[in-house]
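Narrative of activities, Objective 1.

The group set out to show that a structural description can be obtained from nothing but a protein's sequence at a throughput compatible with the screening campaign. Below is one input-output pair from the validation batch, recorded exactly as produced.
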Amino acid sequence: MEYFEVIKTRRSTRSFEARPVEEEKLRKILDAANIAPSAGNLQAYEIHLVRRPATLKALVRASRGQAFVAQAPVALVFFAHPSLSSEEYGARGASLYATQDATIACMQAWLAATDQGLASVWVGAFDDDEVRVALGVGTDLSPVAILPIGYAGEHPGPTSRRPLKDLVHEID
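Output recorded for this entry:
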């Protein structure tokens, strides 16, 4: 797909077919996340790839019962790794840059999934500690987003957007 087609096609999809994601497509998605820009090129984030149904169900519980998380054949969980960023940037790196790094990587993965003909949705409503327990992760990592990925079981249309005149403020 062309870039603007990808960003205009991307939707928040909360229903998935019971069909696996091909390894080649998953690799392209992970490669896209890996080449995402990051503060100081530190890549202060980690990605946990989840396929096991029991772990996906644990993520459903952690995400306040959002059942579609386990309906997807795969989920990527993006964690900020604050200590990697704080070594270079101190407190701001730990509190902000690591989260931004994980966020940018997640968005690139989402756009890559769209480019590969797959669907996804950004899940940000979850209990941090429950996500950590579900994945066996320590408190040194901060969960930022869960990205379930699969073939769309629904095809939502575009949503309304704020007009640019309300969103963009040019400063002279």
